[in-house]
Amino acid sequence: MFRTLGATVLLLKISLTIAYRPVFIYHGILTGADSMGHLVNRIQEVCVHPGTVVYNFGRFGGWASLINAWHQVQAAHDNLKLVCDLHPDEGINMIGYSQGGLLGRAVLQIYPDHCVKTFISLSSPQAGQFGDDFLHLIFPSLVARTAYELFYSRVGQDTSVGNYWNDPHHPDLYEQYSIFLPYVNNQLPSVNSTQYREALLRLNRMVLIGGPDDGVITPWQSSHFSFFDQKYNVLPLEESVIYTEDWIGLKTLQESGRLHIIERQHVRHYQWHRTNDVIDDVIMPYLD
């Protein structure tokens, strides 16, 4: 009897050792948990990841995704904490798609003892957003050139898009009015600046995924923390101040081999989480 029990315990220990960490998924703008269903199924069905536990964040679907970013981040933090409390030892992995990648990153930054080991940002506006194509999906009558008049106001800052709208022609207004992105990127100092950086340095790995055919994130390099200058040139990450001055730890992560920047061509924005070969190539290898 005791020999059988010992073998059972041994098998249980082995199964726990080789099991894949649970995954927390954060959906994009104007969608919801249902839109991430294909990604959830793919993670759970692929032969090397069968049965992986997936937590598909279900709040702020549809038009509710336009609510102020800080409000969404705090609510998502509460959900993530519940998940971390369930997995205090092994930790979890996290995938944020589109807006969900930016807000998910902020969730980690306000959660100093989070349990996330690998954070995957899937085509997300980490350095901000500025472009007509994206804008017209949500605000058809606005154009990028004049959108700052709305977004850089108290009313505009009640919207998530306004919170990360980064107009390269009006950096002074961006810093004056934006209540979210310049703070989570530590461009503007706050009482939480140190925590925002150290929380990201808790990660074993940060994976930034994007590509030139995305068609929504503008510039697409924002998915890699790169952005326009005032002449519409995109400054490479390694030449940007957020990197050179290591505002949120990107340089430290890269120098320690924990920052992975992936560029994938011929993938439209709505295909990243719905195309098997893309999922298998750029997401699955980083889920451990």
TrEMBL record:
GO terms for molecular function: palmitoyl hydrolase activity; thiolester hydrolase activity. Gene3D superfamilies: alpha/beta hydrolase (3.40.50.1820). It is found in: Lysosome. Keywords: Disulfide bond, Glycoprotein, Hydrolase, Lysosome, Signal. Pfam families: Palm_thioest. It is an enzyme of class 3 (hydrolase). It catalyses: S-hexadecanoyl-N-acetylcysteamine + H2O = N-acetylcysteamine + hexadecanoate + H(+). GO terms for cellular component: lysosome. The keyword Hydrolase applies. It comes from the Eukaryota. Its main location: other. Its EC number is 3.1.2.2. Belongs to the palmitoyl-protein thioesterase family. Catalyzes the cleavage of thioester bonds from S-palmitoyl-CoA or S-palmitoyl-N-acetylcysteamine (unbranched structures) but does not have activity against palmitoylcysteine or palmitoylated proteins, branched structures or bulky head groups. Conversely, hydrolyzes both long and short chain fatty acyl-CoA substrate. This is palmitoyl-CoA hydrolase.
